[in-house]
Structures
1.
Amino acid sequence: MSVGDIDLYNFRLFVPVACPGHGLSVCTNYKDVNVFFEYGNWDQGVLGQVGDDVIFLYTYGVERFADMASLDTFMFATSKKMYIYTKAQFYELGTQYPFDRKLIPMDMNDFENNRW
């Protein structure tokens, strides 16, 4: 199956981790896929990977973040936001009006102090 020029046959869903580490001292409640979807507020979309690209699938379409995936890529989430760690950096999945998504450098202090 393809969406635009993205072949979803090789789509790999990122499994959320609870404790991202890499300089972050706090953990989240979303420790696996079941918990991630259980709360019902993640119908906004899912993050995954196709080849070297990070892919965000959501109700209104798909966003490709070209060449953003690496061997160290993983995702984690709070009740408010989704994040990825890739290429030794943290990113937040940000929203631009109306539906465009972008990866912005994560504010680690905000995550540590306001994650809920």
2.
Amino acid sequence: MTINEKLEKLREKMEKYNLDCYLEHNVDPHQSEYVADRWKTREWLSGFTGSVGTLVVTSKKSALWADGRYYIQAEKELNGSEIKLQKKGLEKTSKVHEWLSKNLKNNAKIGLNGKTYSEKYVSNLKKNITLEDIEFITRYDIVDELWKDRPEIPRNKAFIHPPEYAGKTRAQKIKNIRKKMKEKKCSHLIISTLDDIAWTLNIRGNDIKFNPYIISYLLIENDNISFYVLEEKIDKKIKKQLEKDNISLKNYSKIVKDLQKLSKKDKVWYSPETTNMWIVSSISEEANKYQKRVPTKLMKAKKNKKELKNLKNCQIKDGIAMVKFLIWLEETIKEREIGEVEAAQKVNEFRKRQKYFIEPSFSPISAYKENAAMMHYHAKEENQSFLKNKSFYLLDSGGQYMDGTTDITRTIPMGVLSREEKFHYTLTLKGHINLANSKFLYGATGSNLDVLSRKPLWEHNLDYKCGTGHGVGYLMGVHEGPQNISRTPNKIKLEEGMIVTIEPGIYIEGSHGIRIENDYVIVKDKKNNSDQFMKFKNMTYCPIDTQPIIKDLLTEEEIKWLNDFHSKVFDKLAKHLNEEERTWLKKKTKKL
């Protein structure tokens, strides 16, 4: 079926169920950013493959909201369909609730799959729609009725992430969680987010590509813990370990029945932001509810000493892989053109050779020239570009290792560059350094600091339509909250031990895209009386190409930062390389 044919089939079902509108997105029952193929429902229905985006369909119209990372990509992928792109974040673009208020009438019935929409999303939408007597119908999964060859729930085996990597035992983590529950006088804690479950239990899985999770729910009580999962995923050895900590295995969907049994003496803690409507509606009406972010979010975000020590070694390995890739790229392009797909495969090959490597942390963004203007471009064999001896090649990639998760972007000159390309590269570097070299008062959030990275660009009327940085997990998702660096207001303080990326960029449609990204850990700086200051400590060891830099545009302080950075890169990596590789690295890290 074509996209338009799928939409007409959807409308037939909407009419059958007396729905005036239907919403669809690529989200699973656990509110994951990246999902298993089974839950790529918006992608199947619309053709848009971005990780984030909402599709709204009425009897006459359809619209899709995508953020600045995906404007160019969405326009291409929606071309030929009836779906109208709504560029989220632009002043002229209506928000979903505004669009619904204009295109629906009073007493409208809005359909969505309650298993994939959080309680907070639905309540906010209902509150903001300016029509009267709107009703949300959450019991229909219409796409499931239309998608005849829809993939099943993954059934891959789980594996243990032992304390020598995790830094704390399962029992220690559970004890700390129960302490928080006791403070809030809660008898039950529902954890539905897969990264929090993986962190709590020191278990990882292979259910979602690039994200080492196992699809499950967790219900923590004062004395017992129920782990809701397809039991075939858990082998006898893991089951035995879990039983030692009073953790019982139960069928994945049995959580509903257990929540229905709760009584008025029970107080249930769950996060409205990440718990789906199906789960929330299952909680007994007699039970009391405590609706706040689950405590594991911040516990997980602040890496312990063992994790940080391991991650340092992990980043060195990742840097070795990147250096070997960059040498291969530089030598190979002298002999022949290189496809974007081949380059992406090659960087993954170099990572696979490193100790404790498991898988990439995401599908590499391997983008040449104008393709790099699409922030989350994905090269395919049938439509890829081939690298030549000119312009920029952007590679955003990372790895999942037993001892950490990495994320790095380098923009590489392939040959002759225009003055504009060099200018944009230098501004991007200035933006990166300006934030990375900053000190800030404890209590600051990422949204307080975001402007530091944009300032050098804003001075030349340039900007990027996305955040500046995100949290990074530890053998977890490459995007991890609750911390981030963005213009969007965020109340989460940047705490000691949190990992964040810094990745400003300039994206010129039809021409080029530039991004420079490192991972940083938040550490304490000096204390002035009662004021504790913080700073960013670099975790990424890979040279930043100096060839495109217009040196006159850099301050002495910026040059010093770059020289110091390159000195550390050489010190960390040189002893792990052969003589030829060391010579290359020496050249790439020489003082500017």
